[in-house]
């Protein structure tokens, strides 16, 4: 059995390395009048109608027993890892220096000076060096980055009335360097970055929240203000679980689901983290069809990561 060492909101799950999770075999089921267990390999065949157990529900499916919760959690982790693609560094077709040069915001000698500074070991990137040493404005650099990424430029003036947004756990926003600015009446969450955007992260947010993610950039000084306001917000409680393997992480997630008995739960992978959100009671859906935000009661988040132990 694995050992769970709990320290505040951080759990480390260690133990002997188990065998890899077996492949899932599809099991055909005939349509039932009443809900049945969502675990396709459930052997009890008990209907929800005859069981004194209405929760947990995970991704819309009721689970009849702790064993089925564990099996379903393993399937979800297997799905997330199967859909993942190896991360590769993004390379722009046009370097930032040439973008600035084409816009007429710097001169050729300025770009040569910045590149020479990098060759001499400057820790500043080309754009940062030009802002610090050649009079390039912060907004011009942000606009050039927006041209590179093909994304809009945000301003705190247009979003200040809606700050802060605690839709996403603080651990995720700080780990991946972005700030949720606001949620629009049309069901869009605006995500601000300083110098790049992250399509994989945006997709994970869309899958978890049901909102459409709109990514954009903020100038450095405004981004720092937004980060500070966001950090001062009151977030819902989140727990971090560190496990030695995917199998142990699945067991830890399943134990947490059984403990909390959510009326709905979802799991998505965010780069190297697994994000599990649990709704402890059904909330009224809004116009976008979501179950509510983390600002409401009855919502908890668990962030899982796989690490090694000495």
Question: Can you give a write-up of this model?
Answer:
This protein is α/β, with parallel strands linked by helices. It folds into 3 domains: about 5-15 and about 30-85 and about 235-305, no CATH class; about 95-150; about 155-165 and about 175-230, 2-Layer Sandwich (GMP Synthetase, Chain A, domain 3), CATH 3.30.300. Helices cover about 35% and strands about 20% of the residues. The chain has helices spanning about 65-85, 95-100, 110-120, 125-135, 140-150, 155-160, 170-175, 200-210, 220-230, 245-260; strands spanning about 5, 10-15, 55-60, 60, 180-185, 190-195, 210-215, 240-245, 265-270, 275-280, 300-305. A 6-stranded mixed sheet has the order 1-2-8-11-10-9. A hairpin with a 2-residue loop joins strand 3 and strand 4 (about 60). Helix 1 crosses helix 10 and helix 3 crosses helix 4 (about 125-135).
What distinguishing features does this structure have?
about 300 residues, alpha/beta, 3-stranded mixed β-sheet, 11 strands, elongated, disordered N terminus
Q: What quaternary form is this? A: single chain
Mean pLDDT: 82
User: Distance between termini?
Assistant: 18 Å
Overall tally of domains: 3
Strand order within the widest beta sheet: 1-2-8-11-10-9
The portion of residues forming beta strands comes to 15-25%
The run of helices and strands is EEEEHHHHHHHEEHEHEHEEE
What is the percent of helical residues?
A: 25-40%
What is the gyration radius calculated from CA atoms? 23 Å
Give unreliable regions as ranges: 1-8, 14-32, 283-296
How can the largest sheet be summarized?
6 strands, mixed
Strand elements, count: 11
* Shape, per Cα inertia axes: elongated
Number of helices: 10
Structural class: alpha/beta
């Amino acid at each position: 059995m694995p050992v769970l060492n709990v320290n505040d909101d951080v759990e480390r799950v260690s133990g002997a390395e188990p065998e890899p999770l077996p492949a899932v075999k599809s099991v055909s089921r005939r349509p039932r009048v009443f809900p049945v267990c969502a675990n396709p390999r459930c052997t009890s065949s008990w209907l929800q109608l005859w069981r004194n157990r209405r929760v947990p529900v995970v991704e819309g499916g009721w689970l009849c027993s702790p064993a089925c919760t564990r099996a379903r959690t393993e399937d979800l982790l297997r799905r997330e890892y199967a859909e993942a693609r190896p991360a590769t560094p993004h390379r722009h077709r046009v370097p930032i220096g040439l973008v600035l040069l084409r816009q007429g915001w710097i001169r050729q000698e300025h770009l040569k000076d910045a590149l020479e500074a990098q060759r001499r070991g400057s820790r500043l990137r080309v754009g940062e060096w030009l802002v610090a040493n050649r009079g390039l404005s912060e907004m011009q650099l942000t606009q050039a980055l927006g041209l590179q990424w093909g994304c809009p430029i945000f301003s705190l003036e247009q979003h200040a009335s809606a700050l802060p947004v605690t839709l996403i756990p603080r651990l995720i926003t700080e780990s991946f360097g972005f700030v949720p600015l606001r949620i629009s009446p049309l069901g869009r969450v605006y995500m601000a970055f300083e110098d790049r955007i992250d399509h994989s992260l945006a997709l994970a947010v869309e899958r978890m929240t049901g909102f459409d993610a709109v990514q954009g950039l903020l100038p450095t000084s405004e981004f720092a203000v937004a980060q500070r306001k966001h950090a001062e917000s009151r977030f819902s409680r989140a727990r971090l679980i560190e496990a030695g393997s995917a199998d142990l992480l699945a067991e830890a997630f399943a134990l947490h689901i059984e403990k909390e008995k959510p009326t709905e739960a979802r799991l998505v992978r965010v780069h190297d983290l697994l994000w599990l959100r649990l709704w402890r009671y059904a909330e009224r859906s809004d116009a976008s069809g979501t179950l509510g935000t983390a600002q409401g009661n009855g919502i908890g988040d668990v962030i899982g990561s796989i690490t090694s132990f000495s």
